[in-house]
Amino acid sequence: MAKAAKKKSAKKKPEKKEKQPGIALGKRLRGLWPFNGKSKRSPGSPSDELFFEMLEDGLLEDGSKGDPEPIESDESDEPETTQEEMVLPDTWPESRLHIVQRIWGKDFLKPGGEQSVIDLIKPMALNGDQTVLDIGAGLGGSSRTIARETGAWVSGFEANADLAIAAMELSKMAGLTRKASIKALSLEGPDQKAKSVNAMFSKEALYKIEDKEAMLAAVHETLRPHAQVLLTDYVEIGSGEISPEMEAWTTSERTPAHLWKLDTYKEYFESRNYRVHVAEDITEKYYHDVVTGFTEFSNTIKTFRGNKEMEEWSVKEAEFWVRRMAPFESGKLGVCRIFAQKMD
After folding, report:
1. What is the C-alpha to C-alpha distance for residues 179 and 159, in angstroms, rounded to an integer?
2. Which end of the chain is more exposed for a tag (fewer CB within 10 A), N or C?
3. How far apart are CA 81 and CA 93, in angstroms?
4. Is 66 helix (H, G, I), strand (E, B) or coil?
5. Which domains does the chain have, with CATH numbers?
């Protein structure tokens, strides 16, 4: 008589572990830095465990073993402008500006750089007969990219007045004084004539504006009928409870964050007679851009090894982005993309 086949006990699938905030980016950064040695806590230094775990493998030499042997810098890798060529705001000293552009690309202070702007504007099909508003222009990299790629006339606006001056100097040096002008952005909105603009572009800038409705209403007045709006921005996800990750991020930001939800943006534009073509979460793509930026940065960082000021700014920028990405990884913060068209 044949033996009854033994029933195979169903294997219990391992439960998925929740992502611990900040760990993913921290691990990536830990493996990228060429600086050796252990970091020590010093008075006034950040106290969050996340940053010190990231530094555990040694992002910055603490001086106990002497200065590392300097490596000659590749001049071709240096930014083309210097502090003598443009005015730099106090919050963006030359060394910091140098580091940030190494991470995100020349003329850019945000993840994705030039290629991200090119990809974002493709659906807009802009041309040389059109005018564009760029809200949150930073150093003007996005404004100049739009002007060069499409031929459109771009008016960039940046909330940091000193940064706007620096951005305008760069446009002058690029021969784009009129094609990509940069001005300071006032709380009342962009200084543009009514119904004179064909499109509005904004990349991770509106979250800093407390009264977004007033700003968007001011932009609305400048837009012609059938004008396009393309924006990306940080958005709140979930119930709105302040998590430790969100609190650490908001306290480390230079300016307070005033977050909307993705649905809030969608409802806002629909209620004002815009056709919303796209309202999507692009957090995964944004996170990839951050990791890619730091990965590519690690390939050039050793060119200024031994320069304490540059090393310190590298670590500060890494710390800043680990804190910023922690609420993304905990699922409390995201990035949205909105593409809409004004219907009247």
Report:
1. 20
2. N
3. 13
4. coil
5. 113-286+330-342 (3.40.50.150)
CB 140 within 8 A of CB 118: no
Residues 229-276: tens digit of each pLDDT:
999 999 999 876 778 888 888 887 878 899 999 999 999 999 999 999
Mind listing the pLDDT tens digit for each residue in 20-66?
A: 444 456 555 555 554 433 333 333 333 334 334 334 433 323 323 22
Query: Residue 269, Cα to own-chain centre: how many angstroms?
Result: 23
- What is the C-alpha separation between 220 and 250, in angstroms, rounded? 29
d(C-alpha 152, C-alpha 201), whole Å? 12
Quick one: which of 139, 131, 177 has its CA closest to 158?
Answer: 139
User: Distance of CA 7 to CAs 12, 13, 244, 326, 340, Å?
Assistant: 15, 18, 48, 45, 58
Residue type, 58: G
**Residue 156: left (phi > 0), alpha (psi -120 to 50), or beta?**
beta
**CA-to-CA distance for 25 and 323, rounded, in angstroms?**
10
Q: Which residue has the tokens 């555990």?
A: 56
Instruction: Report CA-CA distances (Å) from 33 to 74, 79, 179, 236, 294.
Output: 18, 21, 39, 31, 10
